[in-house]
Specification:
11 strands, 11 helices, Rossmann fold, alpha/beta, 2 domains, homodimer, 346 residues, P-loop_NTPase (chains A, B), 15% strand
Chain lengths: 346, 346
């Protein structure tokens, strides 16, 4: 699992292992990428680099850029965002020090590394690369709809930002534990850093969206599974184009619907009510059956972080009864999650 | 109708009138853009420019670049494609002559005008612009789903390349003739040249696809209609992302399904059967009702160019009976088309 992507996706095969840069962050929410890497790919992280003032930590050892290089790090990952997605001037000395120490820089912010002249100059001077994971590979072909070999699972959702990446990672790991030959296929910046490759689907030109998804999960052995990180929601008024291109191109055999109980409105919209999980199942089958007539729902992943354990368990049991399929919170795991995994593989 | 787009879309407001460049084309199919401009915007075309060897003509007067400029032309439109979408070297002298005569160049080919150093140099030397209509405007916002004022009609289809642009143009013209305040909103290169503005929806990054469609048909008077050129098909395994983003962002009150009877497979795919018109109606309502709960099908536009007049009329009458809505061929016009227009406005 999580091997560097094959040559077709070479543009986004990332140098590893990483040292995680946290800047001077004091808000854990801004360090989602660093914390996600530490949780999901600790073997790829040799340590962290913090600036004075930082209060957030991954718990990994604090290293200077040269110490990180000496431990085998090949890249420094900017594992923190700040408001506006920019790289503030007072971070730059450390980043240049990393380049000088022989590390490439990896980032997924709105501001591109190569647009900062000091960094571009230093990278050239030290012969290092500046890698923006928000930039899709060049020459993505138009999709064809050709059926590919191997099995595929896609996480879909009732909205953005409620656990589609986490669910895909947890399912991929669970499959691996069961001895299944599996790859997690990343479609967003944090997922790409965790996997060491992938395609930032929201940055792909729409004419090539399905083609990018086809490229992301190539032909594989018949018993191999790709577990693909979903994006957006098919009923999201802003992002459904991303979701549908990803659905068509992924041609999933199985999908899992991710949902956050209690969320009532879609993120970033003018008051759009959340779509029900049943409606998402209906639409995903109606649309996904175009490229895979055998598509089916494997179950539901609920993000119950706002609920107590007993309340969450009761809600999920009730919903599972009502929906006729397993409902589990991948973070809570347990037998409900085992049932979800079994249902996906059934 | 077809006034230059408002300032929000200034990046794609085109200088007009045009002189139409046909190169040395001998195949009418390659001159679709020039022929479309001559058919739909003759008042914007002062003449044509052909090279020795050309056998295709728009029927407009042959002019040199300076003659065209003297007649008021502000731009030369490359109205012809060739295999591969490139601009062959032997066209370049004429294009440079046009720049020298004071004309901007407009093209919509895969190869960008500005990537040809001779043209880029000449444009700078003569102070002229190279305008690629396949390049979307910068800074397209993410869609919000906010309901906009005014009425909207979107042409959708059972496949690509079967008359969505033609149908939208014909409907816009018919509405105009009935005294309706109407704008044709172009989403592809030929449509953009005809309208003098628009957004090439297939070239927009997928995260911004719905936002681009929102930008394309802004708030308007309550009795104003935007007639929006559709793209792709919601069940096309390559292009559905474009179609869904355009559908959500257009929030149409009415849609017309464009179809070519006799076509059995989707263009460019691995043998995908064409979706039925009824299924397209179902899916368009299921998905489009997200941003406009009042969405309805106004009827069907059939491309019957492969049929004789009697056969076409009989087929359309039968299908209209079966579907319970008007079916017309916009090219044939007649009372069936009047019925379609009336149904859209009903």
């Amino acid at each position: 699992m999580n091997a560097p992507m094959e040559h077709a996706l070479g543009a986004l095969a990332l140098p590893q292992p990483y040292v995680l840069f946290l800047g001077d962050t004091t808000i854990a929410g801004f360090a989602k990428t660093a914390l996600g890497l530490k949780d999901w790919a600790p073997e790829k992280c040799v340590g962290e680099l913090r600036l004075p003032g930082a209060t957030v930590t991954t718990g990994l050892e604090a290293l200077t850029p040269s110490e990180a290089a000496a431990r085998g790090a090949r890249a420094l990952v900017i594992g923190v965002a700040n408001q506006g997605g920019v790289i503030p001037p007072h971070w730059r000395a450390s980043l240049i020090e990393a380049l000088e120490a022989g590390l490439d820089l990896i980032a997924g912010m709105h501001m591109r590394l190569s647009d900062i002249p000091e960094l571009a100059d230093a990278a050239e001077r030290f012969g290092r690369r500046l890698i923006d994971v928000r930039v899709p590979p060049a020459r993505i072909p138009v999709g064809t709809g050709r059926k590919r070999s191997g099995k595929r699972l896609l996480t879909v959702g009732t909205d953005c930002a409620l656990g589609k990446k986490y669910t895909a990672l947890a399912l991929a790991r669970a499959l691996e534990r069961r001895g299944v030959d599996v790859d997690f296929r990343a479609t967003g910046q944090t997922g790409i850093m965790i996997a060491g490759g992938g395609i930032p689907m929201d940055a792909v030109v729409s004419d090539f969206e399905a083609g990018a998804a086809e490229l992301l999960s190539p032909d594989a052995a018949e018993d191999h599974w790709d577990v693909i990180e979903g994006q957006g929601a098919i009923t999201h008024p802003s992002y459904a184009a991303v979701s549908l291109g990803l659905l068509h191109g992924s041609q999933p055999d199985v999908f899992v619907v991710c949902h956050e109980p209690g969320r009532t409105e879609m993120l970033g919209t003018a008051g759009y009510p959340l779509t029900s999980v049943e409606r998402i199942v209906e639409l995903t089958i109606a649309l996904g059956s175009r490229t895979n007539p055998a598509i089916r729902c494997g179950g539901f992943a609920f993000n119950t972080s706002a609920l107590g354990a007993a309340e969450a368990a009761e809600l999920m049991a009730r919903e599972s009864e009502r929906l006729g399929l397993p409902v589990a919170d991948p973070i809570r795991g347990g037998s409900a999650f085992d049932a979800l995994v079994a249902s996906c593989l059934a």
